[in-house]
């Protein structure tokens, strides 16, 4: 990020815009240190027991198609690292704006030849979601060293704006990703969708559902938000009803069905429960080509 973009006042309309993290898969040559970058992807943070994790798709960290069992890239590219940034608040700017800066990370995907990510403890890589241990959340002293007062890239499960309601088929949803690497300034693009299959049904016997949207590459690993406007009763009781916009974390986007961008336009979302199961289960991942 250029110096004039790294520190600037920003006032955003929805705090959920801070949830997504743009990922750049890298392959680093051990001998020369030369980096080769692949097309960008998306991820987000998750917190569990005072530790932070990076959540994205299994196919993002391996370069391996989960259904065909083959390399996604014609060059058989598989990353060794992921590069990403998190955003920090420096101090309050004018008129309620925030002065923002960023800190870059380069995350190694293997240690002693073994994957560093966790996969689903029961379904393994049949669930196209992984969790990569990152670090403990920065304390006040560490933030001060970075010249910051708060972390803006908050973990999805610590976001205070969620409303607990039961998503239904035909509800609106948004995929917060980076289509073709594009962003809205430093933030993800909100790609509109609708929930296309019954959320309580596990498609193909797996914890996933479908959304109807014209998604593009670069959005893999993005958080998906269910969105309901108007009258919402989270508990089903009239006295608990809310009026306005209600948002809930729906799951993890992992790609569209088929290779035709103008075809079905149906996307796959792994249900929110899979993230918690992966993080808690701590099942070490496997290289798909070794199975």
Describe this structure in words.
The protein has helices spanning 3-6, 58-62, 140-145, 272-281; strands at residues 8-10, 20-28, 35-37, 41-48, 51-56, 81-92, 98-108, 110-111, 114-115, 118-119, 130-133, 150-151, 172-177, 189-195, 208-212, 223-228, 231-232, 242-243, 246-256, 266-271, 283-284. The protein is mainly beta. It has a single domain, classed as Thrombin, subunit H. The longest helix is centred in the last third of the chain and has 10 residues, at 272-281.
CATH superfamily: Trypsin-like serine proteases
Radius of gyration: 19 Å
Catalogue the unreliable spans.
1-6
What's the total number of strands? 21
**Quaternary organization:** single chain
Which overall shape is indicated by the principal axes computed on the Cα atoms?
A: globular
CATH class reads Mainly Beta
The helix count comes to 4
Under the CATH scheme, the architecture is Beta Barrel
Sheet of most strands: 9 strands, antiparallel
Helical/strand content category: mainly beta
Portion in beta strands: 35-45%
User: Any idea how many domains?
Assistant: 1
Proportion of residues in helical segments: under 10%
The CATH topology label is Thrombin, subunit H
Distance between the termini: 39 Å
């Amino acid at each position: 990020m250029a110096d004039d973009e790294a520190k600037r006042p920003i006032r955003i309309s929805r705090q959920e815009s801070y949830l997504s993290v743009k990922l750049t898969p890298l392959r680093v040559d051990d001998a020369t240190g030369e980096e080769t970058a692949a097309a960008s992807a998306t991820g987000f943070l998750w917190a569990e027991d005072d530790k932070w994790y990076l959540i994205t798709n299994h196919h993002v960290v391996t370069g391996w198609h989960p259904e065909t069992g083959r390399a996604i890239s014609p060059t058989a590219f598989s990353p060794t690292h992921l590069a990403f940034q998190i955003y920090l608040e420096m101090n309050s700017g004018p008129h309620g704006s925030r002065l923002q800066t960023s800190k870059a990370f380069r995350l190694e995907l293997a240690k002693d030849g073994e994957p560093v990510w966790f996969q689903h403890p029961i379904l393994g890589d049949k669930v196209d979601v992984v969790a990569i241990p990152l670090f403990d959340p920065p304390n006040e002293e560490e933030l001060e060293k970075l010249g910051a007062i708060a972390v803006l890239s908050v973990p999805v499960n610590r976001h205070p704006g969620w409303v607990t309601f039961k998503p239904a088929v035909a509800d609106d949803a948004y995929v917060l990703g980076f289509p073709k690497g594009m962003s809205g300034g430093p933030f993800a693009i909100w790609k509109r969708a609708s929930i296309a299959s019954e959320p309580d049904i596990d498609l193909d016997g797996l914890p996933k559902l479908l959304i109807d949207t014209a998604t593009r590459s670069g959005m893999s690993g993005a958080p998906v938000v269910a969105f309901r406007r108007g009258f919402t009763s989270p508990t089903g009781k009239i006295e608990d009803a809310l009026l306005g916009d209600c948002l809930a974390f729906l799951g993890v986007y992992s790609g569209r069905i088929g290779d035709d961008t103008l075809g079905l336009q149906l996307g796959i979302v792994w249900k929110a429960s899979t993230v918690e199961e992966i993080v808690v289960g701590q099942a070490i991942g496997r290289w798909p080509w070794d199975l």
